[in-house]
Amino acid sequence: MPKILFQDNAEPLKLAIGGWNQGTVMEVGKGRVALFTEGMMFSSQRNLKTNKVHGLRSYGAEQNARFLLNVMNWFFHVFA
Length: 80
Known about the structure:
The chain is α+β, with helices and mostly antiparallel strands. It has one helix at 64-76, and strands spanning 23-28, 31-36, 44-46, 53-55.
């Protein structure tokens, strides 16, 4: 976490985030809602200068695709 927002810092402030949530799913009335605070895990980007992949298909995030499919499957089964 940077001391000044949107400014790179060589020594960022470290903040423990244990227990924080990046998203939630819930049933509302006859439907379902999924809310996520970060969309990078559901999309893929490639840095053209470094050729590094970020997001859905990035190294270390191999579970993202399965998670996205599980969320979509959960939505589908509300009508099954």
